Amino acid sequence: MTQSALNPPVVRAALALELAPGSSARHAALAQHEAGALATLIARDLAGFAADAAQLDLALVGAHYDPVELLRPGWPLHRELERLSARAPGDAGARVIAFGAHRDRLPDALAPAQEHAGGPLRLLPLVLTGDAATVAGVGAQFEQALMERGMAGAETALRAQDAFGLRVEHARYLTLHDLCAMTALQYEHAGLAALWPLLETALLAPDEDAWLDAPPEPLLHYVAGEVRIALFSPDGWRARHAAADEDEARLERGFARFEARQRQLATLLQAHGVPVTYSHCRSRVDPHDELA
C-alpha cells in the first residue's frame, strides 16, 4: 500500500488460513512463545517475496479472526497492532514483535469476537513498519506478488495448524487490498454484490458518500461515516417496489422478503463495524431526501 492519509508508512497484511470443512480451532490465541515462533517463520516467508522486508519491523498478533474483523473502517485491528509495536522495547534495527495471550487472554482491543468464530477463512493480522521509502517499496512488491504467489512456507503453515489446532488446506499472505478484492468476489457469489460499493467506500474513502439505489434492493446511503437505511410503510414499499397488479398475498410476501433483506444488509454492515441508522420515509416525500 502506498502512503496517504489512509495508508501511512506501514504495510498492512495478513496470513490467511483456509480451513478444511468442519475444522474448528482448539485455540483462538497463542501463548507468547508460540506467537513468537510463528512470527519468526512469517518474517522469513515475507523476505522471500520482497528482500527489503527483512529491514522492517514485523509485528504480529498470535490470534486468528474472521475477515469482517479486519475489514473495518480505519483498520482498527491493524492500528492497534501498530500502536502496540511502536511501544514495544527492543534494539534498533529490524525487529520481529509478536503479541500473545496471557493466561489464554488477549487485550480487549485484540481479542477475536466469539460471534465471528468458526468461519472457513481465518486471518492473522500483521504489519511491517520502518523507513518510509523501504515500506513503500515493500508494499508495492507485496501488492504485485501476494495475490498471485503468496503461499506461506510449508513450515509456517504446519506451525500455524499445530499451534491453533486447525486443519489448514491453504495458507497464504494477503495485503488488505487483496482481502478487499477477495471479499468483494465472495459477496458477489453470495448475492451481495450491490452492498460492496458502500462497504468499499467506508473502508477506502470514508469521507465520501455512496448509495445503494437499485430496486428491489433496500435504499441505503453511506454518508458521514454511517449507513442510513430507508424504512418504508407497506404502502410506501408498494409504491416504490411492487407491480400494480400483484395480489395481496404476493404483496405481503414481497414486503416480508424486503424487510428480511434490510435486516441482512444491516447485520453485515454492523459486522464490518459500519454504524447503521434507520430513517422512516414519509409518504409524498422523496426517500432520497430523507436519507441525505
Core attributes:
292 residues; alpha+beta; 2 domains; 4-stranded mixed β-sheet; disordered N terminus
Task: Record the strand order, biggest sheet.
Answer: 3-2-4-1-5
Summed over residues and divided by their number, the pLDDT gives a mean of 90
- Largest β sheet strand count, sense and barrel closure: 5 strands, mixed
The number of helical segments is 10
| Percent range for β-strand residues | 15-25%
Shape: elongated
Radius of gyration: 22 Å
Q: Total strand count, please?
A: 9
> Would you identify the regions where 5 or more consecutive residues have pLDDT less than 50?
1-6
How far the N terminus sits from the C terminus, by CA atoms, comes to 32 Å
Instruction: Classify the secondary structure makeup into a structural class.
Output: alpha+beta
What oligomeric state do these chains adopt?
Answer: single chain
Q: Could you say how many structural domains there are in total?
A: 2
Helix content: 40-55%
Order of helices and strands: EHEHHEEHHEHHEEEHHEH
Overview of this structure, please?
The two termini are 32 Å apart. Helix 1 packs antiparallel against helix 5 (154-164). The radius of gyration is 22 Å and the shape is elongated. The longest helix has 24 residues, at 248-271. It folds into 2 domains: 10-189, no CATH class; 193-291, no CATH class. It is built from 10 helices and 9 strands. Strand 6 and strand 7 form a beta hairpin. With 292 residues, the chain is of the alpha+beta class.
